[in-house]
Predict the structure.
Amino acid sequence: MAATRKNRIELLQGTLDMLILEQLRWTPSHGYGIGQAIRAHSGDLLRVDAGSLYPALHRLERQGLVKAQWEISDRKQRTRVYRLTPGGRKHLAGERSRWEQLQAAIGGVLNRARTDEA
Amino acid sequence: MRPPLWRRRQDEELDEELQSHLRLAIADRIERGESPEAAASSARREFGNELLVKDTVRDMWGWTPIEQLWHDLGHARRALWKAPAFTLAATLTLGLGIGVNAAMFSIVRAVVLRPLPFPNPDRLVQIDEVDQRGGGDRRGAVSWPNFRDWQQRAASFESLAAHHVSNFTITGIGPAQHVPGAVVSASFFETLGVNPAIGRGFAPGEERAGSDVAVVSDAFWRDQLGARADAVGADLTIDGRPFVVVGVMPAGFVFPIASPAPLVWVTSAQDARVESAGDTPITEERGAHYIQVVGRLRENVSVTEAQAEMTSIAAVLARDYPNDNLNRSAAVLPQLEVVVGEARRPLLFLLAAVACVLLIACVNLANLMTARGIARQPELALRVALGGSRLRMIRLLMAEAAALAVLAATVGLALAWSSKRLLVQLAPADVRGLDQVTIDGPVLAYTTAAAAICALVVGVIPAFRATRGDLRSNLGTSRTAAGTRSQSRWLSGLIVVETAAGVVLLVAATLVIGGLDRLSHTNPGFDVSQVTTLRVSLPDSRYPFREQIAFYDRLLPDLARLPGVSGAALVGPLPLSGSRFGISFDLPGDRAVETAKRPSAGFAFVSPGYFRAMRIPLIQGREFSASDNDGGPRVVVVNESFARRFFPNADPIGQRIKPGLSTTEPETPWREIVGVAADVKQVSLREEPAPMYFVPYAQGMITTPHLVIRSAGAAETVPESARRVIAAADPELAVYDVRTLEARLADTFATQRFATWLLTLFAGLGLLLTAIGVYGVLAYSVSQRVHEFGVRAALGASPGQIASAAMTTAARMVVAGLIAGIVIATALGQVMQGALEFVDRPGLETFVTVAAILLVVAGVSTLAPIRRAVRTDPMQTLRSN
């Protein structure tokens, strides 16, 4: 446990929102499911704790990007299931392109530094 | 305070969501092979601090303005709960003020503001004839021929209808009964815009004599016709003649608005009947003014336009029929105004009076809040020191005022609800709509608005004052910065305002009490005690004129012979029964004048013994006797005013006049004056004496008379024994309108009595609240000056000096308020007299009375604080600081 905790990467502000929306793009899910999916798809590197996940979900709900509904899960549990709204889908697309620009920009800066070193 | 409901629900959902997260996590772990215990503990560990998670989510939700308000109200509730005496005093004071306003408004709404219950009620108008003889306009009833001419000529109206109340004797359903009803034109229901619920209204052809059809009310249909579906087409015996019921009106239909409400309507065919062929029916008499006319204005025609048209039509009719219509015009008035009538101005005045009570209550509360604000300055200082903004402080104080207003509105509505019945009982019975006084939406809205304004008034200014200046300088001191010049000026100002309002109320109350006292001690000119009055309906079909005279000739001696009865007579119209007849007459000599300028005077027909039975003094000559009958010489008795006006320099006895009145003779006869009686009040106790003359009933009975029966002992048994005597004469006759003269007299000033009761009550409330206010401010000022008094006492001031020092402030405020109040009341004198006609203008006497009452009450309210000032122990005071 201690080892994995060390490997955790702190998420940038706003990035968590994007990851949550991305998860919901594929399938509606409850909070636990979203957390598990992010963890699984990040190769166990990104762990979202409940204290970040739920405020984020409720904030997205207030912003109208996701919609929540009480449903019975496959395990016969009453869970609060979130789905993406059309607005959320648009927002995600915007965030993704911004993220890609940012990634390219940061990548460019880091690559130049490496080139200069060489 | 608990969070609001929606917030609690959200909390529960969040909790459930987090729990489901945990359960899912545990289930996952168990699936992966962990033991249930280990799974539970590791899942919890990974989840972290559940409370912290919840808090973070909640923070994210944020506070909406409504939740902010909720929060402030919660704070206010806690603050008020901690000061129960203040809260109770404030709630009761304001609740009382709001309560009387809600109650009064509910009455005003039901009586004055509620529209008439007909479609497009604002287009309904009443059209009166106006008698312009002798200068001035006297509005009065209309005659059938004039009505029909209006109907044909006037273009301003969709429809015009005529009506007059009448009474019918219904036989054939149980014992004979007397039923209130109306004779109407065929256009009646159509004009009002209400169709019968069953059957039909009247057809134009049914105004012809002989079409005996009737429409009945819902109540009559249920009570008398057994609510039968086949009631339409049923026979109904009215005044001894067979009628056919053609329609049943829907429940709640009342018109003309009269007390008692009409139950049966028949057409003008009822009036068009004549006793013998060749007679002129009264529906053809242009000079017989006794019907009311209601009209429905065409869309987009104003009352003014209709009035202009009616004035010109009346002018044409005056030219065409000078004998009857010269100097007669027409007046158009909104029907609602006519219906609300006299009640309007007193009620609106009373509404203004309760607004005064509310003002006093608000001022008192502002006082309390101010004193409390000052006392709380250390607390507020602490809050500011801890980072509260001034705005936030003001908001907290405002929330307190709002919470108080909500409490007070609740108390006030409860008060209004419970006092409603009492108010309605006190009110004069014939005011329309009193049976429909309810606490409904508009009343609630009015109350809410009143409470909201109060909250603003009592909240804003004290809040600003309490948070003014550098509050932090008060931090750490236990003594407050009160007693400053500005503070005491503000408090004294409040007292001056409420004393002035109290004085205005007191002046009004003193005036109405004086006015009512004068009214109830007005001598009507006859002795009202132990006189029973009643009427008997003699159906025209069985009792033509001569038979009616013969019937009463036999009945009166029988009634007079009853044990305990000292006299029985008849009269029409009965004084104080609401009607006055006027008939014009010719004077002797060469004073022959054109018809329209003939003098007119009040008229009544009476039986022999009438003046004795009523104890109306005869000034000269004699009363009528049994020989003044149809066969005897034509005679007349006049009253003092008549004699003074028309025979100022001659002995009236033996003079002759010729009233336009005949019963059996072919031409109106000259009549000799045989007696002069004292003046009596005919309609109202406030009327000035007016000329009037009386003829023997055998020579002039033109309407159903009232019997007056004077008893030597108790009057309670008279109605019963009179009924027995009448039933013995003819069992088919209905006896009705049985009332004592005393009750009739009381009815004539019911409105004035109602206004007096309420104004006295309101003034009492206002005075009480003012006294409480004076007490509160003085007690507060003494408590602030205890230190000063202690020092003074230590320096040798006598108790008297200290008392006068404490008193001066209070005395100044009250006297200033008194003077302001007197100035306002004097200015309002005219308004008051306009609204309540029976009162005098306020004079010196009024003001002396009011000042005395106010000073005594204010004096009493200063006793306790002054006692406290005088008893200050100098040693203790000096030690404490």
Q: What stands out?
A: The longest strand of chain B covers residues 157-172. Residues 750-794 of chain B form the longest helix (45 residues). Residues 573 and 580 of chain B are 7 Å apart (CA to CA).
